[in-house]
Amino acid sequence: MTADSKRRQRHTRRRHTVTAVALGLALSACDKTDPVLEQGKVVWDGTCKVCHLNGMAGAPKIGDTFVWKNRIAQGTDVLVSHALNGFEGNQGTMPARGGNPGLTDAEVAAAVQYMVSQSE
């Protein structure tokens, strides 16, 4: 093997190594999930989905960025407070804890964060 072909072979190996590292990083970034959002999805699936999937009782539909925009602008603390304590608004009613008194404060907050993440 000539010196030139050895250089090309080393260069090719380096390129493949760099490509493999970049691909690994990209895949690991896709694989990382936020545990709060995971918990929020579980709560949403079990409680919140009943109203927020189709807008029952004036609930903002998850994913409707137009409807959520002004709510999100109020801040997470306000949204979590409304979800925890209930809220009577012009467009509907939010029962305390989504009507599920068994939910913890953390579970309610996680559900709010999940819905916001899907509606920004």
The Rg value, from CA coordinates, equals 23 Å
Strand order of the largest sheet: 1-2
Our count of domains comes out at 2
What is the CA–CA distance across the termini?
58 Å
Q: What structural class do the secondary elements suggest?
A: mainly alpha
| Share of residues in strands | 5-15%
Structural shape: elongated
- Show unreliable segments: 18-29
Q: What's the CATH class label of the largest domain?
A: Mainly Alpha
- Write the element-wise H/E pattern from the N-terminal end onward: HHHHEEH
Largest sheet: 2 strands, antiparallel
Q: Give the number of DSSP strands.
A: 2
- What is the CATH superfamily label of the largest domain? Cytochrome c-like domain
Properties at a glance:
2 domains, mainly alpha, two-stranded antiparallel ribbon, 120 residues, single chain, Cytochrome Bc1 Complex, Chain D, domain 2, 5 helices, elongated
Describe the structure.
With 120 residues, the chain is mainly α. The protein folds into two domains: 1-32; 34-117, Orthogonal Bundle (Cytochrome Bc1 Complex, Chain D, domain 2). It has five helices and two strands, in the order ααααββα. Strands 1-2 form a two-stranded antiparallel ribbon. α2 packs across α5 and α4 (76-85) crosses α5. The longest helix has 29 residues, at 3-31.
